[in-house]
Amino acid sequence: MADRAPLLDVRGVHVRFGGITALAGVDLTVGEGEICGLIGPNGAGKTTLLNVLSGVYRADAGRVRFAGRDLLGLPPHRIGPAGVARTFQNLALFPTMTVLENVMVGAHPACRGNWLTSLLPGYTARSERRATAEALGVLDLLGLADVALHRVTDLPYGTMKRVELARALVLRPRLLLLDEPAGGLNHDEVAELGELIVRLRDTFGVAVLLVEHHMRLVMGISDTVVVLASGRRIAAGPPAEVQRDPEVIAAYLGSPA
Protein backbone atom coordinates (compact mmCIF):
# COMPACT_ATOMS: atom_id res chain seq x y z
CA MET A 1 0.00 0.00 0.00
CA ALA A 2 2.85 2.38 0.78
CA ASP A 3 4.05 2.21 -2.85
CA ARG A 4 0.68 3.09 -4.39
CA ALA A 5 0.57 6.31 -6.40
CA PRO A 6 -1.46 9.03 -4.64
CA LEU A 7 -4.90 9.93 -5.96
CA LEU A 8 -3.78 13.55 -6.36
CA ASP A 9 -0.15 14.40 -7.09
CA VAL A 10 0.79 18.09 -7.38
CA ARG A 11 4.38 18.85 -8.35
CA GLY A 12 6.12 22.21 -8.72
CA VAL A 13 3.02 24.28 -9.43
CA HIS A 14 3.68 27.95 -10.14
CA VAL A 15 1.01 30.62 -10.63
CA ARG A 16 1.81 34.25 -11.34
CA PHE A 17 -0.49 37.25 -11.69
CA GLY A 18 1.58 39.91 -13.41
CA GLY A 19 4.53 40.54 -11.13
CA ILE A 20 2.97 38.70 -8.19
CA THR A 21 3.80 35.05 -7.53
CA ALA A 22 0.76 33.38 -5.97
CA LEU A 23 2.21 29.85 -5.92
CA ALA A 24 5.92 29.09 -6.05
CA GLY A 25 6.67 25.46 -6.83
CA VAL A 26 4.03 23.90 -4.59
CA ASP A 27 4.08 20.12 -4.04
CA LEU A 28 1.17 18.24 -2.47
CA THR A 29 -0.22 14.72 -2.46
CA VAL A 30 -3.57 13.33 -1.33
CA GLY A 31 -4.13 9.59 -1.06
CA GLU A 32 -7.30 7.60 -1.66
CA GLY A 33 -9.76 8.26 1.17
CA GLU A 34 -7.42 10.73 2.88
CA ILE A 35 -8.42 14.00 4.52
CA CYS A 36 -5.68 16.55 3.84
CA GLY A 37 -5.88 19.93 5.56
CA LEU A 38 -4.43 22.87 3.63
CA ILE A 39 -3.74 25.83 5.90
CA GLY A 40 -1.82 29.09 5.92
CA PRO A 41 -2.20 32.82 6.56
CA ASN A 42 -4.40 34.98 4.35
CA GLY A 43 -2.83 35.36 0.93
CA ALA A 44 -0.81 32.15 1.26
CA GLY A 45 -2.18 30.74 -2.01
CA LYS A 46 -4.64 28.15 -0.69
CA THR A 47 -7.65 29.15 -2.79
CA THR A 48 -5.37 29.77 -5.77
CA LEU A 49 -4.30 26.13 -5.59
CA LEU A 50 -7.93 24.96 -5.44
CA ASN A 51 -8.66 27.15 -8.47
CA VAL A 52 -5.84 25.44 -10.36
CA LEU A 53 -7.14 21.99 -9.42
CA SER A 54 -10.69 22.86 -10.50
CA GLY A 55 -9.65 24.51 -13.76
CA VAL A 56 -10.51 28.09 -12.80
CA TYR A 57 -6.86 29.17 -13.13
CA ARG A 58 -4.15 27.80 -15.38
CA ALA A 59 -0.77 27.02 -13.84
CA ASP A 60 2.25 28.74 -15.36
CA ALA A 61 4.40 25.70 -14.59
CA GLY A 62 4.19 22.37 -12.82
CA ARG A 63 2.30 19.10 -13.06
CA VAL A 64 -0.95 17.84 -11.55
CA ARG A 65 -2.00 14.22 -11.89
CA PHE A 66 -5.31 12.90 -10.65
CA ALA A 67 -5.97 9.16 -10.70
CA GLY A 68 -3.10 8.84 -13.16
CA ARG A 69 -4.45 11.51 -15.53
CA ASP A 70 -3.06 14.93 -16.38
CA LEU A 71 -5.56 17.20 -14.65
CA LEU A 72 -4.06 20.39 -16.10
CA GLY A 73 -4.79 19.08 -19.58
CA LEU A 74 -8.54 18.92 -18.96
CA PRO A 75 -10.92 21.82 -19.69
CA PRO A 76 -12.86 23.00 -16.61
CA HIS A 77 -16.13 21.33 -17.67
CA ARG A 78 -14.37 17.94 -17.79
CA ILE A 79 -12.85 18.09 -14.31
CA GLY A 80 -16.10 17.42 -12.41
CA PRO A 81 -17.04 14.32 -14.41
CA ALA A 82 -13.40 13.14 -14.05
CA GLY A 83 -14.01 12.86 -10.29
CA VAL A 84 -13.12 16.22 -8.72
CA ALA A 85 -15.79 18.41 -7.09
CA ARG A 86 -15.54 21.54 -4.97
CA THR A 87 -17.30 24.05 -2.79
CA PHE A 88 -16.47 27.74 -2.68
CA GLN A 89 -15.33 30.17 0.00
CA ASN A 90 -18.39 32.32 -0.67
CA LEU A 91 -21.73 30.67 -1.32
CA ALA A 92 -22.28 30.09 -5.04
CA LEU A 93 -25.92 29.00 -4.98
CA PHE A 94 -28.74 30.15 -7.26
CA PRO A 95 -30.89 32.22 -4.88
CA THR A 96 -34.21 32.00 -6.75
CA MET A 97 -34.01 28.21 -7.12
CA THR A 98 -35.02 25.52 -4.66
CA VAL A 99 -32.59 23.34 -2.75
CA LEU A 100 -33.38 20.43 -5.08
CA GLU A 101 -32.87 22.51 -8.21
CA ASN A 102 -29.52 23.81 -6.93
CA VAL A 103 -28.29 20.29 -6.25
CA MET A 104 -29.56 19.02 -9.60
CA VAL A 105 -27.30 21.57 -11.29
CA GLY A 106 -24.40 19.55 -9.91
CA ALA A 107 -25.87 16.29 -11.20
CA HIS A 108 -26.18 17.31 -14.83
CA PRO A 109 -22.49 16.97 -15.81
CA ALA A 110 -22.74 13.29 -14.91
CA CYS A 111 -25.79 12.77 -17.16
CA ARG A 112 -23.78 12.07 -20.27
CA GLY A 113 -25.25 12.68 -23.65
CA ASN A 114 -24.79 14.62 -26.87
CA TRP A 115 -26.91 16.37 -29.47
CA LEU A 116 -27.81 13.04 -31.07
CA THR A 117 -28.87 11.22 -27.90
CA SER A 118 -30.89 14.26 -26.84
CA LEU A 119 -33.07 13.73 -29.93
CA LEU A 120 -33.97 10.19 -28.90
CA PRO A 121 -37.54 9.78 -27.59
CA GLY A 122 -37.64 10.10 -23.83
CA TYR A 123 -33.89 10.71 -23.41
CA THR A 124 -34.24 14.14 -21.81
CA ALA A 125 -36.96 12.96 -19.43
CA ARG A 126 -34.89 9.94 -18.36
CA SER A 127 -31.85 12.13 -17.83
CA GLU A 128 -33.90 14.54 -15.72
CA ARG A 129 -35.31 11.71 -13.61
CA ARG A 130 -31.81 10.35 -13.04
CA ALA A 131 -30.52 13.77 -11.94
CA THR A 132 -33.52 14.20 -9.62
CA ALA A 133 -32.98 10.79 -8.03
CA GLU A 134 -29.28 11.46 -7.49
CA ALA A 135 -30.00 14.86 -5.95
CA LEU A 136 -32.70 13.52 -3.62
CA GLY A 137 -30.42 10.71 -2.48
CA VAL A 138 -27.65 13.12 -1.50
CA LEU A 139 -30.10 15.50 0.20
CA ASP A 140 -31.39 12.63 2.28
CA LEU A 141 -27.85 11.65 3.21
CA LEU A 142 -27.12 15.18 4.45
CA GLY A 143 -30.40 15.52 6.32
CA LEU A 144 -31.79 18.05 3.83
CA ALA A 145 -34.67 16.05 2.35
CA ASP A 146 -37.27 18.02 4.31
CA VAL A 147 -36.14 21.33 2.75
CA ALA A 148 -35.70 20.03 -0.81
CA LEU A 149 -38.48 22.24 -2.18
CA HIS A 150 -37.54 25.35 -0.18
CA ARG A 151 -35.81 28.29 -1.84
CA VAL A 152 -32.22 28.43 -0.64
CA THR A 153 -32.54 32.08 0.40
CA ASP A 154 -35.20 31.08 2.95
CA LEU A 155 -32.74 28.83 4.81
CA PRO A 156 -30.21 29.52 7.59
CA TYR A 157 -26.63 30.11 6.50
CA GLY A 158 -25.39 26.82 7.93
CA THR A 159 -28.03 24.92 5.97
CA MET A 160 -27.07 26.72 2.76
CA LYS A 161 -23.49 25.57 3.34
CA ARG A 162 -24.73 21.96 3.43
CA VAL A 163 -26.70 22.54 0.22
CA GLU A 164 -23.50 23.59 -1.53
CA LEU A 165 -21.78 20.49 -0.18
CA ALA A 166 -24.68 18.38 -1.50
CA ARG A 167 -24.26 19.91 -4.95
CA ALA A 168 -20.59 18.88 -4.96
CA LEU A 169 -21.34 15.37 -3.67
CA VAL A 170 -24.01 14.60 -6.25
CA LEU A 171 -21.25 13.95 -8.78
CA ARG A 172 -20.01 11.12 -6.51
CA PRO A 173 -16.46 12.51 -6.69
CA ARG A 174 -13.29 10.70 -5.72
CA LEU A 175 -11.78 14.00 -4.54
CA LEU A 176 -13.69 16.75 -2.76
CA LEU A 177 -12.18 20.24 -2.57
CA LEU A 178 -13.62 22.22 0.34
CA ASP A 179 -12.81 25.95 0.48
CA GLU A 180 -13.43 27.23 4.03
CA PRO A 181 -16.63 25.22 4.63
CA ALA A 182 -16.72 26.30 8.31
CA GLY A 183 -16.80 30.02 7.49
CA GLY A 184 -19.77 31.68 9.18
CA LEU A 185 -20.76 28.60 11.18
CA ASN A 186 -21.22 28.57 14.94
CA HIS A 187 -19.35 26.25 17.30
CA ASP A 188 -21.94 23.45 17.19
CA GLU A 189 -22.25 23.66 13.39
CA VAL A 190 -18.46 23.40 13.00
CA ALA A 191 -18.43 20.27 15.15
CA GLU A 192 -21.26 18.77 13.07
CA LEU A 193 -19.40 19.66 9.87
CA GLY A 194 -16.29 17.83 11.06
CA GLU A 195 -18.32 14.72 11.88
CA LEU A 196 -20.04 14.93 8.47
CA ILE A 197 -16.75 15.18 6.52
CA VAL A 198 -15.34 12.14 8.33
CA ARG A 199 -18.58 10.22 7.76
CA LEU A 200 -18.53 11.00 4.04
CA ARG A 201 -14.92 9.84 3.82
CA ASP A 202 -15.68 6.63 5.71
CA THR A 203 -18.90 5.89 3.78
CA PHE A 204 -17.81 6.68 0.24
CA GLY A 205 -14.02 6.57 0.42
CA VAL A 206 -13.89 10.10 -0.97
CA ALA A 207 -10.63 11.97 -0.45
CA VAL A 208 -10.87 15.52 0.87
CA LEU A 209 -8.60 18.54 0.43
CA LEU A 210 -9.77 20.93 3.12
CA VAL A 211 -8.85 24.63 3.06
CA GLU A 212 -9.82 26.08 6.42
CA HIS A 213 -8.84 28.67 9.03
CA HIS A 214 -10.64 26.84 11.82
CA MET A 215 -7.62 25.08 13.31
CA ARG A 216 -9.51 22.85 15.73
CA LEU A 217 -11.51 21.44 12.82
CA VAL A 218 -8.46 20.91 10.60
CA MET A 219 -6.29 19.34 13.28
CA GLY A 220 -9.14 17.22 14.58
CA ILE A 221 -10.11 15.44 11.33
CA SER A 222 -7.10 15.64 8.98
CA ASP A 223 -4.80 12.69 8.32
CA THR A 224 -2.14 15.07 7.01
CA VAL A 225 -1.75 18.84 7.02
CA VAL A 226 0.06 20.98 4.43
CA VAL A 227 1.01 24.56 5.27
CA LEU A 228 1.48 27.33 2.71
CA ALA A 229 2.98 30.76 3.33
CA SER A 230 3.61 33.40 0.66
CA GLY A 231 2.85 30.88 -2.07
CA ARG A 232 5.28 28.19 -1.01
CA ARG A 233 4.94 25.03 1.05
CA ILE A 234 6.66 25.38 4.42
CA ALA A 235 5.52 22.19 6.17
CA ALA A 236 3.63 18.95 5.64
CA GLY A 237 2.92 15.96 7.85
CA PRO A 238 0.65 14.64 10.61
CA PRO A 239 -1.30 17.35 12.47
CA ALA A 240 0.60 17.01 15.75
CA GLU A 241 3.94 17.29 13.96
CA VAL A 242 2.90 20.32 11.90
CA GLN A 243 1.62 22.17 14.97
CA ARG A 244 5.09 21.95 16.54
CA ASP A 245 6.97 23.12 13.43
CA PRO A 246 8.85 26.38 14.21
CA GLU A 247 8.33 27.76 10.70
CA VAL A 248 4.58 27.15 10.93
CA ILE A 249 4.45 28.89 14.31
CA ALA A 250 6.39 31.81 12.86
CA ALA A 251 4.08 32.09 9.85
CA TYR A 252 1.02 32.39 12.08
CA LEU A 253 2.54 34.49 14.87
CA GLY A 254 4.72 36.68 12.71
CA SER A 255 7.90 35.97 14.66
CA PRO A 256 11.24 34.95 13.11
CA ALA A 257 11.56 31.21 12.37
From TrEMBL:
Superkingdom per UniProt: Bacteria
Gene3D superfamilies named among the record's database cross-references: P-loop containing nucleotide triphosphate hydrolases (3.40.50.300)
The keyword Cell wall biogenesis/degradation belongs to this UniProt entry's keyword annotation: no
InterPro entries named among the record's database cross-references: AAA+_ATPase (IPR003593), ABC_AA/LPS_Transport (IPR051120), ABC_transporter-like_ATP-bd (IPR003439), BCA_ABC_TP_C (IPR032823), P-loop_NTPase (IPR027417)
Name of a matching Pfam family: BCA_ABC_TP_C
This protein's GO CC annotations: plasma membrane
Keyword Nucleus: no
GO molecular function term, any single one: ATP binding
Keywords of the record: ATP-binding, Nucleotide-binding, Transport
Protein name per UniProt: Amino acid/amide ABC transporter ATP-binding protein 1 (HAAT family)
Source species of the chain: Thermopolyspora flexuosa
Organism lineage string: Bacteria, Bacillati, Actinomycetota, Actinomycetes, Streptosporangiales
